[in-house]
Every structure is written in structure tokens, then in C-alpha cells.
């Protein structure tokens, strides 16, 4: 049997794709001692765990993975409690709320960031744009003071560090837990005040939402807003950086997208398949479950490798090729469980912000292409991905001929 590289090794962090292949082919279900979990890598198995038609999986693992920084969020809930919470929050991220209230917010925030560098002829698309844009959008959607964006960024960075703290660095853990306290001190008075003065923003929508006589408490809303920082920030930030890294590495596909902007949704879907922002999602088995690779006992933690499943040759032709024209991937980002890749997961916890993320990336790419004619990577720069649970380019220095606003 081939040796399976450890998912916590430096070789894996540098390039996980060879290890994913070995796992799919010869070790589709393995026990991993360091994370005390079973690792699943084939598309059919990851899809089966996410869809969970037989009700065999829970998200109890989030009680220790995310509760210390966010409190009790929608991700930890299951059954009817989850369905009601989902019905309370989901309408704000689609339909007329998205189209009429939030598309202008997305357009404005993207433009503000681009205006800061469009005259200069150079930028780092990660630090100057991607890491700022989605967090600014969420803060603005919530109707928070622009002056507080800097604090949001600080909290966001601490939360991301907490969630990715594989080595258990106590300082990172403490900073994450401190963020929970600081965020609550900041957010709870704003929520109480907003309840008295409802407006047109996302926070007001959450305060007023009611389903079957159930409403969210201040604490519920605070935890949800905290989750949005990470769930909607880090993911979309990596998706934007990755779509540009992928297109810059394939200049003919970049030229095609530049010439025909209706190809942006395809480039987005293919980016999420080829380089998903979230590579790993965990679940807890409620019963014994048999998958293609073997049997998992009840009460076990299961690590689902989205990054491996999205490149399964049983599902995609030439999976290691970035190809926005591929015909085995369409561009539907529906709120049903019928997606074309696993980057947003599937089933009950399917990303509630998928359409918002799609709108952010599509608008961002369109505006950036307009602002950066002859966009190219800085001389000699080859974008490298970093991260294990979440993954994306660490820097993306680009050059372009400056254009006037
Ligand atoms: C859930 C990925 C953008 C909010 C999820 C899950 C994934 C995911 C994989 C499932 C987690 C699980 O099953 O354990 C992504 C990616 C994004 C993105 C790749 C960007 C490209 C967003 C945005 C928002 C958002 C923009 C909102 C502002 C959420 C929430 C959940 C979630 C609230 C929990 C849903 C539930 O438990 O029912 N996302 N996400 N996400 N996402 Fe996203």
C-alpha cells in the first residue's frame, strides 16, 4: 500500500493534492490519531456524509471547535431547532433582500477598495482587496459604523487564527476567547438599541425575524453575527484570491473572462471546485455507518476532505485541470442540496451565504477587471496557497496600467 502523508505534516500543507489522490485510491477511510477522527476523501462518501439522508451525523463537534469563539450558532443546531433558525436567517441572504438591499452594499464596498489602488498600477490582491472586502460587506450589511471596521478586522483575524490553531498555541486560544468577550461587549448594546430603532439593515431583519412564534434572543443574534465574520469573511476572501490566482495562471482563460463577463459564474464555480476555500469539515457519527471505504463506529468524529472530493476522477474528468469551460460542472448555486461541487457542503448546513458569496465574487471580479487592464502577476511571482483546514493564496502581487476612476 502507498504511504499516506499526514494531513498535519509540512509536505501536506505545501501541496495536499498528491496526498488526496493516495487517500482516495488506497485509503478512502483512515483513522487519524492527532485529530482523533476518521478521514473520508471520496466524492461519493463526502457527499453521503453531508447529505445525511438517514440522519446518521450530527455537528456536535462544533461544540468544542467553534463554541469558544462564537457561542451557540446555527452550525451546532440540528433537527427542528436548526430548521427554524435557518428559516429565520436565510431570507436575508437571497431574493429581494439580496437583490435590492445588499447588491448596492457589495458594489459600494468593492469600489471603495479598488479606488484606493487603481491609480497606482500595482496591488496585492490579497491584502489590498480580498481580506478586506467581504468583512467590510458584512459590517456594512449589519449597519455597523464604518469607524468600527478596523475592530472587525482585528476580531476577524483572531477568530481565523483560533479556528486554524492546529498546534493548540495557548496564546492564540486565549486571543480567540478574548474576542468572544470583546465582540459581545460591542455587539449586545448595539442589538438592544437596534431593536428600538429598526432600519433597513441585516441586523434589523434579524431582530424582527419571527417563524412559528420563535424569535432570536440578543445572544443568538450576537453569536450569528460573530459566525458571519468567519463563515462569510474568510471563505469569500479566499475564493476571490483563488479565482484571480487561477485565472492569472491560465492567461487564455483570463482573456476569455475579460472579453465575456458572462463567464464569471463559470470561473467562480470552477474555482470553488478546484481550489475550495474550506478543505475540511467535521461531523460526528450518531450511529455506525458504512461508507465505500469501510465502517465508522457510532460516536466518532469524521473529517470530510472537500479538497479531495472535489478532485475525484470518479466525479470529474481531468479533475486536476482548471477549466472554466468543463461540461461536468454547471453554475447553479441553489439553496437546495443540488450543487455541483462540495465547497458549500450539502444538506441541512449547506452554506446559507452561497448566493451572497457568488454576488460578491462576481461583482468584485467584474470591477477589478475593469480597473486593471492588462492585469498580470508581479514579475517572477508564482502564487502559493497556504492553509490546511482553509486554504488560499497567501499573497497576490499584481501589476497593471493605471486607469483613472
Ligand atoms: C455554512 C462554505 C460564504 C454563512 C457553510 C458550510 C460551508 C461553507 C462548507 C457548511 C459548514 C458545515 O456543514 O459544517 C462557504 C464558502 C463561502 C461561504 C466556500 C464563500 C465562497 C458565506 C457567506 C456567508 C456564509 C458570504 C454569510 C455572510 C454561512 C452560514 C453557514 C455556512 C451562516 C451555516 C449554515 C447552517 O448551519 O445551516 N459555508 N461559505 N457563508 N455559511 Fe458559508
**Which strand-content bin applies to the residues?**
5-15%
- How many domains is the backbone divided into? 1
Order of helices and strands: HHEEHEHHHHEHHHHHHHHHEEEEHHEEEE
Number of DSSP-assigned strands: 12
Largest sheet: 5 strands, mixed
What molecules are bound to this protein?
protoporphyrin IX containing FE
User: Strands of the largest sheet, in order across it?
Assistant: 1-2-8-5-3
Under the CATH scheme, the architecture is Orthogonal Bundle
What's the mean pLDDT score?
A: 93
Shape: globular
Please, how many helices? Answer: 18
The first-level CATH class is given as Mainly Alpha
Could you name the CATH homologous superfamily? Cytochrome P450
Instruction: Please estimate the helix content.
Output: 40-55%
Q: What structural class results from the helix and strand content?
A: alpha+beta
Unreliably modeled segments: 334-338
CATH topology term: Cytochrome p450
Q: Could you tell me the radius of gyration in angstroms?
A: 21 Å
Distance between the ends: 59 Å
Amino acid at each position: 500500500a502507498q504511504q499516506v502523508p499526514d494531513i498535519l505534516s509540512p509536505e501536506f500543507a505545501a501541496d495536499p493534492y498528491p496526498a488526496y489522490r493516495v487517500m482516495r485510491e488506497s485509503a478512502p477511510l483512515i483513522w487519524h490519531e492527532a485529530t482523533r477522527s476518521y478521514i473520508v476523501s471520496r466524492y461519493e462518501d463526502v457527499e453521503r456524509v453531508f447529505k445525511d439522508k438517514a440522519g446518521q451525523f450530527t455537528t456536535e463537534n462544533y461544540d468544542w471547535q467553534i463554541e469558544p469563539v462564537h457561542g451557540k450558532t446555527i452550525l451546532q443546531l440540528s433537527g427542528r431547532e436548526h430548521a427554524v433558525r435557518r428559516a429565520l436567517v436565510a431570507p436575508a441572504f437571497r431574493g429581494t433582500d439580496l437583490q435590492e438591499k445588499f447588491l448596492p452594499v457589495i458594489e459600494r464596498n468593492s469600489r471603495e477598495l479598488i479606488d484606493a489602488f487603481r491609480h497606482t498600477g500595482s496591488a496585492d490582491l490579497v491584502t489590498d482587496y480580498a481580506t478586506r472586502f467581504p468583512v467590510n460587506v458584512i459590517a456594512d450589511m449589519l449597519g455597523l459604523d464604518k469607524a468600527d471596521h478596523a475592530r472587525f478586522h482585528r476580531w476577524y483575524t483572531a477568530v481565523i487564527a483560533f479556528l486554524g490553531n492546529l498546534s493548540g498555541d495557548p496564546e492564540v486560544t486565549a486571543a480567540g476567547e478574548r474576542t468572544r468577550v470583546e465582540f459581545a461587549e460591542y455587539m449586545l448594546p448595539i442589538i438592544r438599541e437596534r431593536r428600538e430603532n429598526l432600519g433597513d439593515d441585516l441586523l434589523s431583519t434579524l431582530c424582527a425575524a419571527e417563524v412559528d412564534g420563535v424569535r432570536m434572543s440578543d445572544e443568538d443574534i450576537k453569536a450569528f453575527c460573530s459566525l458571519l465574520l468567519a463563515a462569510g469573511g474568510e471563505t469569500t476572501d479566499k475564493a476571490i484570491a483563488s479565482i484571480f490566482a487561477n485565472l492569472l495562471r491560465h492567461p487564455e482563460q483570463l482573456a476569455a473572462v475579460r472579453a465575456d463577463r458572462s463567464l464569471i459564474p463559470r470561473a467562480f464555480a470552477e474555482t470553488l471546485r478546484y481550489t475550495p476555500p474550506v478543505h475540511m469539515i467535521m461531523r460526528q457519527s450518531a450511529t455506525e455507518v458504512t461508507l465505500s471505504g469501510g465502517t465508522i463506529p457510532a460516536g466518532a468524529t469524521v473529517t470530510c476532505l472537500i479538497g479531495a472530493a472535489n478532485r475525484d476522477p470518479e466525479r470529474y474528468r481531468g479533475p486536476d485541470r482548471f477549466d472554466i469551460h468543463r461540461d461536468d460542472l454547471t453554475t447553479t448555486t441553489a439553496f437546495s442540496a443540488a450543487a455541483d461541487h462540495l465547497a458549500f457542503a450539502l444538506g441541512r448546513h449547506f452554506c446559507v451565504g452561497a448566493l451572497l458569496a457568488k454576488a460578491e465574487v462576481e461583482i468584485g471580479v467584474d470591477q477589478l477587471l475593469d480597473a486593471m487592464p492588462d492585469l498580470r502577476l508581479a514579475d517572477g511571482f508564482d502564487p502559493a496557497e497556504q492553509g490546511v483546514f482553509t486554504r488560499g493564496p497567501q499573497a497576490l502581487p499584481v501589476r497593471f496600467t493605471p486607469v483613472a476612476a
